[in-house]
Design brief:
This protein has 128 residues and is of the alpha+beta class. It contains 2 helices and 6 strands. The radius of gyration is 20 Å and the shape is elongated.
Length: 128
């Protein structure tokens, strides 16, 4: 006897364990129009993510998303519900990379702060 219900439950359980709940901002781009939108990622796995999105999109639409410490990742809209979408990646990623702390080199610092970080060698400050 084929127990497809049991197989579905096992697949759903595995899918749930592989997801990493988090809160990240990212930029979502639509290659067909080059339109970009800021989105909030709520969970992330090697194969996809769930995000809050402020615009209407269609299931199957090609997208690219810029994930922190990973870069642009291509995929497509797997599902759509009110204010949220599921994106399936074209190629797996390492979701732990998105949690890496952002280094000072990756921050968009104003020039005056960049100068402070580069003009004074570490340990060479004097107390006034």
């Amino acid at each position: 006897m084929n127990d497809s219900f049991g197989e579905d439950n096992m697949a759903a359980a595995k899918r749930g364990m592989d997801r990493d709940s988090l809160f990240l901002k990212a930029v979502l781009r639509f290659p067909s129009t080059k339109e970009e939108r800021e989105v909030r990622i709520r969970n992330l796995s090697a194969g996809g993510l769930m995000a809050e999105i402020p615009t209407n999109v269609s299931r199957g639409e090609q997208v690219e998303i810029n994930l922190r410490s990973i870069g642009w990742v291509s995929g497509h809209i797997a599902w759509v519900t009110e204010g949220r979408v599921g994106i399936a990646f074209d190629h797996p990623i390492n979701p732990k990379d998105a949690r890496k702390p952002v280094s000072a080199g990756e921050l968009d610092l104003p020039n005056y702060l960049k100068k402070l970080n580069t003009t004074v060698p570490p340990g060479k400050l004097r107390r006034v």
